[in-house]
Amino acid sequence: MANFFDIKARKEAAAANGSSSKAPATKETTRSQPWVEKYRPKSLSDVTAQDHTITVLQRTLQSSNLPHMLFYGPPGTGKTSTVLALAKELYGPELIKTRVLELNASDERGISIVREKVKDFARMQLSNPSAEYRTRYPCPPYKIIVLDEADSMTQDAQSALRRTMETYSKITRFCLICNYVTRIIDPLASRCSKFRFKSLDQGNAKKRVEGIADMEGVKLEDGAADALIKCSEGDLRKAITFLQSAARLVGETQVKGDDEDAMDVDHDAKMVTVKIVEDIAGVIPEKTIEGLVKAMQPRSKGLVYEAVANVVTDMIADGWSATQVIAQLYQSIIYNEAIPDIQKNKIVLLFSESDKRLVDGSDEHLTILDLALRTSNIMAGA
Amino acid sequence: MALLVDKHRPRSLDQLSYHPDLSARLRSLAQSGDFPHLLVYGPSGAGKKTRIVATLKELYGPGVEKIKIDSRVFQTTSNRKLEFNIVASIYHLEITPSDVGTYDRVVVQDLLKEVAQTQQVDQSARQRFKVVVINEADHLTRDAQAALRRTMEKYSPNLRLILVANSTANIIAPIRSRTLLVRVAAPTEAEICDVLAKSGKKEGWPLANELNMRIAKESGRNLRRALLMYEAVHAQNEKVTDTTPIPPPDWDALIGQVAKEIMEEHSPARILQVRAKLYDLLTHCIPPTTILKTLTFKLVEMIDDALKADIIKWAAFYEHRIRTGTKVIFHLEAFVAKFMRILEEYLMNMDF
Ligand SMILES: Nc1ncnc2c1ncn2[C@@H]1O[C@H](COP(=O)(O)OP(=O)(O)OP(=O)(O)O)[C@@H](O)[C@H]1O
Ligand SMILES: [Mg+2]
């Protein structure tokens, strides 16, 4: 198999340049691939931590009768990977191109265009796979249309889609994917079986990350894996990107068994530490947050303003993201037992307001400064 | 004659004078061959762009410095033609999609796919992928950001993005999830002094430590601003010493005057007078947020401690309004009126 690919790749390359290039292209590709792509699940059973969804899908795979589907959940939880794996298992490598149409937010998705594309695609003749091929892949007699990132489609485009779905329902199945299920209009959502993709839980995500680290020959300090998971908040893609970047930082560049001197790996590779992970993830050092909280402690008004304004100015100049500041400040105040609940009740309202303002694009400096001063004021018993 | 900011701009990672850890990190990423998508963020004037160009050079060699500017025309679905500028070397492109406002999605959709689908023209290029630098990524519309999502995954063998932003708050979660976040902190005051001294040495200017320290402080840790001030001081004075005054930028001086007028008198007539100056600033393209912030911090210095937090509260309130509203001047003026009222009430209570 590998040889076949090499020759083909080489021929293509040669034809393209008019010269014979010697480097086999495929190896180069896997090496320069970001790990998130390299370790994208290849089959349904390879998808981590979405057991319920996967079981149901595997069952439908057997019965060969797929409903329309709606996948929803936060980023990096395996939605796109799952549908790609599903398609591969249904049709195999030869048919997948003619049986699966993927439209995502980077495609023009106005009403008429979607209708046109779906129409053309649905009408294409179904090619007949050989009997032998059929024993390996179910090849059900319909096509799949994947609308990835469907929450960025306008309401109008979505309602137009209803008709299209019905018109071709005999020969096509739709799979809609989105982050926010509430952005999908009801009539559309109700036509689909819904599959919720959960934020990846600690245990499973950790196993996956450790597995990848192992395959790449990266050593993790005690607790570093936990830090990776904690900083990525259930988003496995983020965790993998952090891991890759951390690995580069400690100078691990050899892929296990990929090079002649793979044996050197164990000698040189330094450990990925918790601190490196937190650094990469943009976590603000505990000390900095403590500094802010300390400046907010009730004192005379002038002192508080001076102190808070100085700390905030520095934090902004240091480029800490305001969202991160708010998140960490929240943690440190809400879990502080010395602050009475009645004050906390008032304080959380401020956090809600500030978060909204940031999303609206408000100035980070003013927003954080205002939040800190008003919180301090409440802590002073105002 | 080139400005100091450009003339002495470091061209490679090892010429960068501050944040050595970050430079090392970027180097290790650039040398690894599996460079991720990046989201580079930090305050303006912190040196994000310089660092990115240096990283590109590490990736591809000196070829990235040979750039040309292309103008391209895009067509929207409603058949409107958009003209759009692209800065490009044979290895990378640099675009500012926010130039075309809400049509940014069209540009992002078309351009990136096109880039992704063409091979490197230079057969001996060190990297198989090309890099697209997207400026002002925090100003991209939601639609444009959504359009990036699958493109970033699907075309990753041929394409890497470097998004540049002041803040990550407006970047949607799925994009943040697809990029490695790189924070570029502003240089400290000491680090700024260091850069100024080096630049001055190259120009043959005598060293004035005290002056440099004052400039660093004035600049608010903004290196670009510091260099501009440094150059201005030298352009305007025959002999520069530690005590040479630093001329503030015109707009800053004008806002200072506005602050003074607001403090002096609290009346509708005065609001009217101030409004003319605010208009003036706006027509000179000073961003409304800069106006409001500069004014706020100047005012806060002039009032009693007891009032400071309250003024910040209203400044934040009206800045938010500026962002979400449409008529900037309304909100600037409302802030001025609010300030006058708070101050007036406070002074009256003091009298008793
Ligand atoms: N459940 C999972 N099991 C294994 N790997 C996963 C899983 N979820 C995410 N990953 C990893 O993260 C990467 C991104 O996953 P995927 O593209 O499926 O996310 P998504 O849910 O479609 O996210 P988005 O909403 O941002 O499009 C994958 O390439 C894979 O490396
Ligand atoms: Mg996806």
UniProtKB/TrEMBL annotation, chain A:
GO cellular component labels: Ctf18 RFC-like complex; DNA replication factor C complex; Elg1 RFC-like complex; Rad17 RFC-like complex
Keywords, alphabetical: ATP-binding, DNA replication, Nucleotide-binding, Nucleus
GO biological process: DNA strand elongation involved in mitotic DNA replication; leading strand elongation; mitotic DNA replication checkpoint signaling; sister chromatid cohesion; UV-damage excision repair
Region (Disordered): 12-33
InterPro entries, per database record: AAA+_ATPase, ATPase_AAA_core, DNA_pol3_clamp-load_cplx_C, DNA_Rep/Repair_Clamp_Loader, P-loop_NTPase, Rep_factorC_C, RFC_lid
Residue span, AAA+ ATPase domain: 65-201
Principal subcellular localisation of the protein: nucleus
Domain of life: Eukaryota
This protein's record includes keyword Nucleotide-binding: yes
Subcellular location: Nucleus
Molecular function terms, GO-annotated: ATP binding; ATP hydrolysis activity; chromatin binding; DNA binding; DNA clamp loader activity
Pfam family, one: RCF1-5-like_lid
Similarity field: Belongs to the activator 1 small subunits family.
Protein name in the entry: Replication factor C subunit 2
Automatic annotation (TrEMBL), chain B:
Principal subcellular localization: nucleus
Pfam family membership, one: RFC_C
Cellular compartment(s): Nucleus
Entry keywords, A to Z: DNA replication, Nucleus
Domain (AAA+ ATPase): residue spans on this chain: 34-185
Gene Ontology MF terms: DNA binding; DNA clamp loader activity
Gene3D superfamilies registered for this protein in UniProt: 1.10.8.60, 1.20.272.10, P-loop containing nucleotide triphosphate hydrolases (3.40.50.300)
Domain of life of the native organism: Eukaryota
One Gene Ontology cellular component annotation held by this UniProt entry: Elg1 RFC-like complex
GO biological process: DNA repair; DNA strand elongation involved in DNA replication
SUPFAM superfamilies listed in its UniProt record: P-loop containing nucleoside triphosphate hydrolases, post-AAA+ oligomerization domain-like
Family: Belongs to the activator 1 small subunits family.
Name recorded for this polypeptide: Replication factor C subunit 5
Classification lineage: Eukaryota, Fungi, Dikarya, Ascomycota, Pezizomycotina
